[in-house]
Each structure stands twice: as structure tokens, then as C-alpha cells.
User: Which sequence fits this backbone?
């Protein structure tokens, strides 16, 4: 590898992640999970609700506050309307995750190159990047837990007790608890502890019992105080939310035990290498560090088993599996680095040729196919699309060229660059897919402030709507009593449909004018991504 890469791998890793993700950080539509987090961060600032967190003025204790605190601090720097500022902390957590994956690998393997391979596999795994948009709390809870795992590993392997490791491990677990409760404790830390106990010697572990218990106690105190505070300050709401969240584990999104067993596909471009890396009989003779390979293999499999036991299952819950999976896959990639030039067996070479050739073919064909299928969307953005296509084709040709010469290191790095290029050059292009029906509510607040009109919603607005609008939208829960109506002489009303019964009731007291129809879907109405809940009407009501 180039000298700079060898000497400054962590700087390179952070630069890579930053260049890949930061330039187009505000180009993607805000998801429902993000919107909830962003609204809570905004209300932290506007209402000074830093502990008793709210969303649209209602208590929101489902998620601990640390990710939202970090989001709010970023918003103070970049502005509460800045999507870039709101998303920045999640991207920084990707860097943290990559850094401590590298550091853990380097401590175990004593190899900068191998450790960088592992970190690059992880930070270019599909769902590690996807989770920052779909469910940002996950990257925080697992990122902080990875910090804790690194220092726990140092503690377990040290001859004496280093209390600095105890402190840092405690802080990592505490931060994880304050990010999404005990999720990562179960999904990442527990499998790590089990895998470690089966993979490494235990001669020093007895002396680490007291420090480990100390870590757990400190983590519980530092990470659990918020839960106790909310329980004491707002017990009824806290208990209701806790009961509902707990019930979801057994009654919501219930899937069969085997639902997660295609987990390796979540690594995206590394699907085939990840699968081969899990072939224990094959890899145990080829991994350069057998004990470390056994550790990452067990860590991966145990994580999947533990997650499979929980009745509630979602694809995004697999994100913690990708951490040990990346470490495990790295052994296969490192083996190819060492041996691919000398491999003659088709059983070993064909999967490699198939995997990287497939990626290259996709990179060559995709620009032409997309250009043909979506010409109308692209023709007004021909320069951006041409640049995107040119970059993908050039990288793909280089992959094929280096693969033919069996220069697998170059193939690996080019594949990493290929993945990054999709985000760097592709996102501006795909922004052009926004539907002609799309209509944001972001300008409505300024108009209403000018006219001194307060806006309400009938039965509640979606988080995306509240985020775009820019402030709270109070809810009118029913229209069966005059007391339920706002006292304003004139007000705005978001509704997903005004029934004849409701219209008749409102007509008794107000003149009703439909002002606009909004559609927050960037997808076309015939698309599978189209959501009816993002379409609604806006009325202005003037008291008679």
C-alpha cells in the first residue's frame, strides 16, 4: 500500500468517509425516523427541553436523549433548519465505528494493512451507511459500544488492571445506554463476551472480575440516570411508553426464527466475500490468525442467533452483525491479498472473478441502462449524470483490468472507491427523480407568521410534515365538541381528509377554504416507495 496509507490509516479512513458522505449529506429526503429525532432536537433548543424530551410538544421518552443532544449541538452550529447539521453527528459516528474497528483489529492482528481492510469493509457495508438515514440512533448505540468493546478487550488481555481501560469502557457502555437503551448490550456486547470466552485464554480473567463488575456498575449509573430522572418526573407517561415499547418485542413485526439468516447480504458489495468468510472449514486453514478468525466467526454467528431469538424483527436490527462480519470477511480478503496470484483451483478463483466482475459489469451497464430508462429525468442534468456514468465506467474498467492481472489489492481498493462514488457522484443525479407532484410545506410557516395564523392538525401530522413546517403543529383530536376547537378567529388546518360529518360540524362555526394540497413524496404515485400518509390538504378556517 502507498506510504501515506501505511503511516496514517485513521486519517485516511476519516477522509474517505468524509469525502464519500459529507458533500451530499442534505440531498436525501428526511426519513420518518430522522424527522422524529430532528424535531426533538429542535424543541430541545426552542423550548429548553433537554431532559424531558418532546416531539411536537408531546412527551417522547421512547428513545434516550444522547443522539438528540448531539444533533441539537450540531444544529446550534449549523442552524435548526440545516439537514446537513442535523445529519452530521451520525456521520461522525460512522467514523468512530470505523476507527475503533481498526484499533481493535490492529491490537489483535498487529497489522495496519489487515486492520484497514476490516475498517473499509465495515464502512462500505450497505446497512452501516443506510442506518445513518433510516434509523440514526442505531449507529450511535453500536458506535459507542464498539468503543467500550475495544477497551474491554485491552483490559481482558492486559497482565494487570489498567483503570483507564475501566473508565473508557464504562463511558462507552453508558453512552450506548443513553443512545438506545440496552439494545447494543444484547446485540453487540453479549455476543462479544461469549465469543471472547471461547476464543482466547482465560489465565488473567479471574483478576478482571472486579474491574468488569465496576464497569457495569459505573455504566449503569452514568447511562441509567436519565431513565430514573424521567421515571420520577413524569411517572405515568414513562410507564405507559415503557409498557408499549416492551409489548412490541413480542407483538410487533413478529418474524420466524430464520428471518435473519440472509444477514450477510446486508453487507452489499461484500455479500459473496462475506459468505465465503463464514465457511469455517474452508477459512480455518487459510486465515493468517486462526484464533482471531474463530473469535470473529463466533461473534458473528452468536449475534445472529441472539437476534433471532427476539420475536420482533426488522432488517435494520441486523446492523450490529455487520461489525464482526466485517472483521470476519477481512480474513478472506487478506488471504486473497497473499495467495490469489498463486491460486489455480477454479473452486477458489471463480467466486472472486464472479464477484468483482459482476460489480464491474453493473458499473458499466448501469449508466447506459439508467440513461435509457430515465432520460426525461436526466436530460436536464446531463453534465452531472455524464460525470457519474464516466466515473463508474472508468472504475469498472480498472477493476476488470486489475482482476485480469490478478492484482487483488488494487481490485479491493477500486471496489471501495466504486462504492464511495455512488454516494459522491450518484446522489446529486438521483435527486432529479423528485416527482412533479412533490410539494413541500417548508414555506408555509413564513406565510402564516406574516399573517399571524396558527396551524393545527386534525388527528395529527406526520413527523416529516412537522419537520418541514418548522414548528409544532398542535393536534385537534376530535370534532365532536365545540370545546375541542381552537379559539383563534382564523387558523390553518392540516388534514388527511375532511369527512362530510367533520365538514358539517366545522361549517357551523367557520368559513372553510381549501388553500392547498401537499405531497411530500419524492417518488411517483405509482412507485412502491410512495406513501399515502405524506399527502394531505391544508385549509384555512375563519370564524363566522
Assistant:
Amino acid at each position: 500500500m502507498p506510504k501515506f496509507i501505511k503511516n496514517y490509516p485513521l486519517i485516511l479512513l476519516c477522509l474517505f468517509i468524509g469525502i464519500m458522505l459529507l458533500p451530499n449529506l442534505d440531498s436525501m429526503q428526511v426519513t420518518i425516523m430522522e424527522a422524529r429525532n430532528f424535531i426533538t432536537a429542535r424543541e430541545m433548543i426552542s423550548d429548553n427541553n433537554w431532559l424531558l424530551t418532546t416531539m411536537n410538544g408531546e412527551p417522547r421518552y421512547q428513545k434516550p436523549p444522547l443522539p438528540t443532544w448531539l444533533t441539537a449541538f450540531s444544529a446550534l452550529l449549523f442552524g435548526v433548519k440545516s439537514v446537513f447539521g442535523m445529519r452530521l453527528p451520525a456521520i461522525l459516528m460512522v467514523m468512530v465505528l470505523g476507527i475503533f474497528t481498526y484499533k481493535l483489529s490492529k491490537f489483535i492482528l498487529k497489522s495496519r494493512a489487515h486492520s484497514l481492510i476490516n475498517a473499509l469493509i465495515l464502512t462500505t457495508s450497505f446497512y452501516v451507511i443506510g442506518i445513518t438515514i433510516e434509523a440514526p440512533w442505531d449507529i450511535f448505540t453500536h458506535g459507542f459500544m464498539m468503543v467500550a468493546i475495544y477497551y474491554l478487550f485491552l483490559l481482558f488481555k492486559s497482565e494487570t488492571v489498567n483503570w483507564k481501560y475501566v473508565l473508557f469502557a464504562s463511558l462507552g457502555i453508558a453512552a450506548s445506554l443513553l443512545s438506545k437503551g440496552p439494545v447494543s448490550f444484547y446485540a453487540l456486547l453479549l455476543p462479544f463476551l461469549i465469543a471472547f470466552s471461547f476464543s482466547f485464554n482465560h489465565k488473567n480473567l479471574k483478576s478482571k472480575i472486579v474491574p468488569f463488575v465496576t464497569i457495569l456498575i459505573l455504566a449503569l449509573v452514568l447511562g441509567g440516570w436519565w431513565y430514573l430522572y424521567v421515571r420520577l418526573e413524569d411517572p405515568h407517561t414513562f410507564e405507559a411508553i415503557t409498557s408499549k415499547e416492551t409489548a412490541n418485542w413480542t407483538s410487533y413485526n413478529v418474524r420466524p426464527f430464520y428471518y435473519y439468516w440472509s444477514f450477510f447480504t446486508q453487507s452489499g458489495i461484500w455479500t459473496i466475500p462475506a459468505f465465503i468468510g463464514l465457511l469455517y472449514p474452508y477459512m480455518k486453514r487459510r486465515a493468517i490468525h486462526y484464533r482471531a478468525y474463530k473469535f470473529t466467526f463466533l461473534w458473528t454467528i452468536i449475534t445472529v442467533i441472539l437476534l433471532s431469538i427476539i420475536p420482533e424483527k426488522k432488517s435494520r436490527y441486523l446492523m450490529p452483525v455487520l461489525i464482526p462480519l466485517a472483521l470476519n470477511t477481512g480474513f478472506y480478503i487478506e488471504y486473497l491479498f497473499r495467495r490469489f496470484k498463486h491460486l489455480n483451483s477454479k473452486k477458489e478463483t471463480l467466486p472472486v472473478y464472479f464477484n468483482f466482475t459482476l460489480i464491474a459489469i453493473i458499473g458499466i451497464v448501469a449508466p447506459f441502462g439508467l440513461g435509457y430508462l430515465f432520460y426525461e429525468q436526466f436530460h436536464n442534468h446531463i453534465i452531472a449524470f455524464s460525470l457519474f456514468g464516466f466515473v463508474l465506467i472508468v472504475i469498472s474498467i480498472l477493476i476488470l483490468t486489475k482482476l485480469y492481472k490478478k492484482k487483488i489489492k488494487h481490485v479491493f481498493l477500486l471496489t471501495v472507491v466504486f462504492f464511495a462514488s455512488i454516494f459522491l457522484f450518484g446522489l446529486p443525479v438521483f435527486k432529479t427523480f423528485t416527482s412533479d407532484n412533490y410539494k413541500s410545506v417548508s414555506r408555509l410557516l413564513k406565510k402564516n407568521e406574516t399573517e399571524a395564523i396558527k396551524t393545527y392538525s386534525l388527528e395529527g401530522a406526520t413527523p416529516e410534515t412537522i419537520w418541514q413546517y418548522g414548528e409544532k403543529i398542535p393536534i385537534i383530536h376530535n370534532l365532536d365538541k365545540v370545546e375541542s376547537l381552537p379559539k383563534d378567529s382564523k387558523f390553518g388546518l392540516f388534514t388527511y381528509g375532511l369527512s362530510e360529518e367533520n365538514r358539517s360540524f366545522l361549517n357551523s362555526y367557520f368559513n372553510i377554504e381549501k388553500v392547498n394540497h401537499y405531497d411530500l413524496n419524492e417518488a411517483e404515485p405509482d412507485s412502491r416507495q410512495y406513501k399515502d400518509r405524506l399527502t394531505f390538504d391544508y385549509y384555512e378556517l375563519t370564524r363566522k
Observations:
- The beta strands are 54-55, 58-59, 454-458, 475-476, 490-495, 510-519, 535-543.
- The two ends are 77 Å apart (CA to CA).
- The longest helix spans residues 346-373.
- The chain has a mean pLDDT of 91.
